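Sequence in, structure out.
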Amino acid sequence: RSIKRLFDFGVPINSENSYSPLSSLAPNEIPLRYDGSSYYVDALIAGSEKLSFKLDSGASSSTIPHLIIQRLRADGILTEDHSRGQNTFIGWNGSAGDREVWTIPSIQIGHAIANNVRASEAISGDSTLLGVSFLGRFRTWSIDNERRVLILGEPLDLKPPPLDAVRPSEN
């Protein structure tokens, strides 16, 4: 009974006779943890910091804890060139607050990598969120609630097409 509860919450079961949900994942599927109300996903920030994010499709920006931002700055991974100043963010409860905004060189979950992701610096009490600034880098994304996986489509090409590719033909 306890093992089934762990499995229900996304904890892999390590037993030779047990089905392992991680072994059946496609390259574009990322395992999620579920706490009864929210999904969480593990990520690698700028190739150096591991972090667990709450998946939040209602958040326009991702958020990264102040301590992680400070470590990335101390390691020279983030510089002043990555700073985008402060923006005012409105929380789920309507509260407003100013947060420092950064361009994070990369965020990787599973095999998926998004470069130059906009993220605000989370202050004490803020959740660490993986928002639309990451999810919007993919053509599609969805959650398989039964299997508890995030399914990412092809990455978007963020470069605009050349002008001659969008002009109507003159036939």
